[in-house]
Amino acid sequence: MGYVAVKGGTEAIENATDLVEFYRVRDQTSPVQLQQLQAQFRLAIDKIMGEGSFYAPEYGALALKQVEGDGLEAAFILRAFRATLSRKYYSAILDTKSMFVQRRISSSFRDIPGGQVLGPTRDYTQRLIDTRLVDETNEHIRAFLAGFASRIDAATPGEVTTFGKVVDILRAQGLLKEVRPEDRRVVDITREAVKFPAPRSARLQMLARAETGGIMALGYSSMRGHGGVHPTVGELRVGLVDVKVTDPAGRNRYIGRIRVTEAEMITEAQTAGKEAVPYYAIGYGLCFGQNETKAICMGILDRALRTEGNRAPANDQEFVLYHTDGIEAMGFTSHLKLPHYVTFQSGLSNLREAVDRERAAKKDQGQSSTAEPEPPEQPAVVFAENPDLTG
């Protein structure tokens, strides 16, 4: 491809940047504080952190503010910022069995050890616009919090406990098996180029930072029959997990907690032959923050990508993993806005030459008298000194 510089250089870029800032602040409303964004736009920030592959709620809020609420653009600059940071440690494997559970459900079993914990969700509410929020004030917020606190019996606090995994019940009964021998190498996709077929660790990393809408589209396609996976939620968890690293002295150090969503999707595995014993297999998803749609679709695609053959887009590793990375997709799509004058003019010149040859051939064959009137020849595109004036 050929690209040319935009006329105007640094001054034009500065003017464009100033216009962006002008449109953001021109109404002179009160600046949105990062604390407000973290508190009231937590789900948007969770998506941004996941797609930016950088768990930092305060930076997620800053990115969201900077780009006027464009989630993809916020994830783009967050991932770019992450790439500038040095990596000092690799964390230990997260133990989701010891998660401080805020939400935990199973669609596979009505009664599960420890019970269903509905937690914060809109799943069981009417999706109607709430016009009361138009006039929301600090007094309304304080009144709600006071009423909420009054329903909590502080004298008898519940015991903080952990929950076993629902799928362990099936595993203990011999009903859950691996689909087939799997490449268990652990690779870091930010340090190693991905090669196909990719090990499962690489696939899950790429799905974890994929765009939610992208993997939802392909996960939905699989459930509709284009991929052969229509699972049941074995267990969906949202909660806080400890992050630990090993320091240079070899000591295991606790450095904090992060909120994650984990989904274990139960599917029937295809068996060959009439005598083969059927079994269940698991599709797994885990991502930053509370993003249940993403974790569920990760589980669907994890399972679909382990299906033999590429019968559908959801079964094709390269198709799924390359086309669901929102940052990569947005970057390549946005590059179309860059000047393509050289390549387009080259194609235009070739097209004109082909048209001229066709006209000449028809004229030589005496077809000009019966052919349709030729349109007036258009002048070649000329880029004037002022790039806004062409003709």
Helix and strand pattern: HHHHHEHHHHEEEHHHH
Which structural class do the helices and strands define? alpha+beta
Number of helices: 13
Shape: globular
Q: What is the gyration radius calculated from CA atoms?
A: 28 Å
Reported for the largest beta sheet, the result is:
4 strands, antiparallel
Q: In what order do the strands lie side by side in the largest sheet?
A: 1-2-3-4
Strand content: 5-15%
* Count of individual beta strands: 4
Q: What's the quaternary structure here?
A: single chain
Distance between the termini: 24 Å
**How many domains in all?**
2
Helix content: 25-40%
Mean pLDDT: 89
Ranges with pLDDT <50 over ≥5 residues? 383-391
What characteristics describe this protein?
four-stranded antiparallel β-sheet; 391 residues; disordered C terminus; 2 domains; alpha+beta
What does this structure look like?
- The protein folds into 2 domains: 9-82, no CATH class; 96-122 and 131-324, no CATH class.
- The chain contains 13 helices and 4 strands.
- The chain has helices at 9-25, 34-40, 42-52, 57-66, 71-82, 138-150, 167-172, 200-208, 212-223, 292-304, 317-323, 326-334, 341-364; strands at 100-105, 232-246, 252-268, 280-288.
- The protein is globular, with a radius of gyration of 28 Å.
